[in-house]
Design brief:
322 residues; alpha/beta; twelve-stranded mixed beta sheet; three-stranded antiparallel beta sheet; 7 helices; 17 strands; 20% helix; globular
């Protein structure tokens, strides 16, 4: 069951409403998480009493203490100095009479895994699922987070919910994205340092749902869809925009079928526009820590139609970003 979290909205008046005024981290900062390693700087943020001074302490293989930042409109945000791969660390946010601490935190590469049902496809559904699940205990430094499925007509500051809190590889792996997991453990096998995987995907969704209004306007796609999956930007608003403050290494993407009969002729514009916009938004949201040209891997779909014995790669040809 999803862990329901307080949603924070950016209203037209630019007023941010905190849940309770108590000191705590944002929804997706949890024990056992992975923060982005050097050379990038990890960004941490959360909520606190208005006007209080928040200091963040890092305790582990190295120690850090940030300069105090003021809670403004219920929100605080700090950027750590670069930390090399490894851990574990405790990360503590402190105000005068209160603290909030994350334990067993590792530093490595953080990857976002997005798309529709192909990315949502679970490890338990793999043909060799039993072996994959059995071998998972070899990867305690591959950690995972699953964003809950929620829509919003407005850009949210924080997630509405999390289906799977940050956890080691063996916990609830059967429910996690197979593609995301296989990518993560492959990267760990090659790099030999921690990898954090953030699954944020929803089956049957077109690219318009995952794109901001800026990206859609670039391609002349401002018309709202005919059902709740096709409504423009509804997953961007609730499942991507809240993550922008977090420093990430890159993203992988597996989507396309939902656009075979929905704005198919626009995909050669909407897909590159979404990639460009995500890169810009994550770069700005993290205060320049996420690279403006971060790696964005995607699966090239096969031809979607067969006519008179000849494959017609209508979507496949139009999906490749320029």
């Amino acid at each position: 069951m999803a862990k329901t979290l307080c949603a924070v909205f950016l209203l037209i008046a630019s007023t941010i409403h905190d849940c309770d005024g108590n000191l705590h981290f944002a929804s997706y900062y949890e024990d056992s998480m992975v923060l982005q390693k050097s050379p990038e700087k990890a960004v941490l943020w959360g909520y606190g009493p208005e006007g209080e001074q928040v200091t963040v302490f890092l305790l582990g293989p190295i120690k850090q203490k940030t300069s105090p930042v003021t809670v403004t409109n219920g929100i605080w945000k700090v950027t750590l100095d670069p930390v090399e791969a490894g851990g574990p660390y405790n990360v503590t946010a402190a105000v005068q009479n209160s603290t909030a601490t994350l334990t067993d935190v590792l530093f490595g590469d953080v990857w976002l895994c997005g798309g529709q049902s192909n990315m949502l496809f679970e490890v338990s559904q793999m043909f060799n699922a039993s072996k994959e699940l059995h071998d998972a205990d070899k990867y305690p430094h591959v950690r995972k987070l699953m964003v809950a499925l929620n829509r919003s007509d407005n850009e949210l500051i924080d997630l509405i919910g999390v289906d799977l809190l940050w956890s080691m590889s063996t916990k609830n792996l059967s429910e996690f994205s197979a593609v995301c997991w296989l990518f993560g453990r492959y990267m760990y096998d090659i790099l030999k340092y921690p990898v954090g995987l953030v699954e944020s995907c929803w089956g049957g969704t077109p690219i318009e749902a995952w794109s901001s209004s800026r990206a859609l306007q670039r391609c002349g796609l401002e018309q709202t869809g005919t059902n709740h999956y096709e409504n423009n930007s509804v997953m961007w608003n609730s499942m991507i925009h809240p993550l922008l403050n977090m420093t990430i290494k890159g993203a992988i993407w597996y989507q396309g079928e939902a656009n075979t009969d929905y704005h198919r002729d626009k995909y050669n514009c909407s897909f590159p526009a979404m990639i460009d916009d995500w890169r810009m938004a994550f770069h700005l949201g993290s205060g320049g820590q996420t690279a403006i040209d971060f790696p964005f891997g995607f699966v090239q779909m096969m031809a979607s139609q067969i006519s008179a014995g000849t494959r017609q790669p209508t979507l496949a040809l139009s999906r490749t970003p320029e």
